[in-house]
Amino acid sequence: MLNLPEKLANLEREKRPIKVGVVGVGQMGAGVITIISQMKGMKVVAACDIDKRRTLNIFKETGIPPGQVFYSDDPDECNKALEKGMRVATGRAEVIPQLFLLDVVVEATGIPRVGAEVAFAAIRSKKHIVMMNIETDVTVGHILSDLARRSGVVYTVGAGDEPAAIKELYDFATSLGFKVVAAGKGKNNPLNREATPESLKEIARKKGINPKMLCEFVDGSKTMIEMAALANATGLIPDVRGMHGPECEPEEIATVFSLRNQGGILNQEGVVDYALGKIAPGVFVVVTTKNRRLIQDLEYIGMGKGPNYLLYRPYHLVSIEVPLSIARAVIYNEPTLVPLKNPVAETITVAKRDLKKGMTIDGIGRFDIYGLIEKASVARKENLLPLGLAEGAILKTDVRKGDCLTLDQVELEDNLLVNLRKLQDRLFSPKE
């Protein structure tokens, strides 16, 4: 996105800033609002959270006097307030897409059902939608992106999180004609499939984050979801169910993520994966080439002797980078990361403990389940339950700890998320 500062400065000078609404003012949503408050050519004019204090406090923190913030759950009243130049705060997510003056909606709740509802409403209202809700994207991203294209708006996963940061390296490598061997991320927390919000409560308190969010990180679900999103956007696949996830140092990545006959762990090239250890919070792409001159050039500039070479970014700035996706959608009409037409990967549902018939599954980052990545074709063939659909589903049978849940074993809720997924499954076949 060359020349973006000049384009944003022009919008500021012409008093035509990009108007943004944010749904979900937790750690991530608050971060987006904060970074935009110091930027030119863009401003957050509306925010939503179930906690009224959060929305009012974040506007106050970013320099908006309380008298200039209007709070209401009525979309008509909110629209009138915006026309008067006020900022709007609300506790109802469905209000944000109904605000006429908005250019972009940012979804940052992390709740699959809410994400689907907000994204669908934003697309119907002809507004660009930037998803920080990667859980929704891996569940119904294909149908949402298709609907957005048909409506003439941009649907995109936001910059800053690992999938988009990796996609930047992937685009760089493939544009230059390199073959991608593996692409992935460092996992920020030690892996513990049995983690629960209760077991992590004290750690979460010290870190100042939601125990449910931390649990999703620690039990590995978030990593599986993120790499499924990357797979669906690139065509790269998981080498094995759940990926390998070795522990290694950054300087070992190109060797570890190579084929077995080269001393690595991979059965095939062109995969998504992750690593434990000091790689986090970085992201990586391992590439290769058979061109002799390029091999000489790569060795000359210190990239090693091959056959694989590492492209490594030692950071991702999460919410701080999201405004880049907002600007890209509005100014260039382009997504940052969006699923390909045919699903490549799925995040499937695994029992975290013994589950009993009649139970209502509690959802991601809690006590009952965690996620594993799998090829979409395998998940479809085995009728496995997508992780994003699990919350609120009622079990028809007992399920043992460690077993994968199937769609036959659950009764799904009747909601927009489930109905969008059913439509997506009818319209888009998994890549074989």
Written account of the structure:
By secondary structure, this protein is of the alpha/beta class. It has 3 domains: 4-160 and 321-332, NAD(P)-binding Rossmann-like Domain (Rossmann fold, 3-Layer(aba) Sandwich), CATH 3.40.50.720; 162-316, no CATH class; 345-427, Antifreeze-like/N-acetylneuraminic acid synthase C-terminal domain (Type Iii Antifreeze Protein Isoform Hplc 12, Alpha-Beta Complex), CATH 3.90.1210.10. The protein is 36% helix and 18% strand. The chain contains 15 helices and 16 strands. The strands form 4 sheets. The chain has a 7-stranded parallel sheet, sandwiched between helices. It has a 5-stranded mixed sheet with strand order 9-10-8-11-12. A two-stranded antiparallel ribbon has the order 13-14. The two termini are 34 Å apart. The model has no long low-confidence stretch (mean pLDDT 97).
| Radius of gyration, in angstroms, nearest whole number | 22 Å
CATH H level, superfamily name of the largest domain = NAD(P)-binding Rossmann-like Domain
Which structural class do you get from the secondary structure elements? alpha/beta
Q: How many domains comprise the coordinates?
A: 3
What are the defining features of this structure?
Rossmann fold, 3 domains, 432 residues
Q: What's the short version?
A:
The chain is of the alpha/beta class and 432 residues long. It has three domains: 4-160 and 321-332, NAD(P)-binding Rossmann-like Domain (Rossmann fold, 3-Layer(aba) Sandwich), CATH 3.40.50.720; 162-316, no CATH class; 345-427, Antifreeze-like/N-acetylneuraminic acid synthase C-terminal domain (Type Iii Antifreeze Protein Isoform Hplc 12, Alpha-Beta Complex).
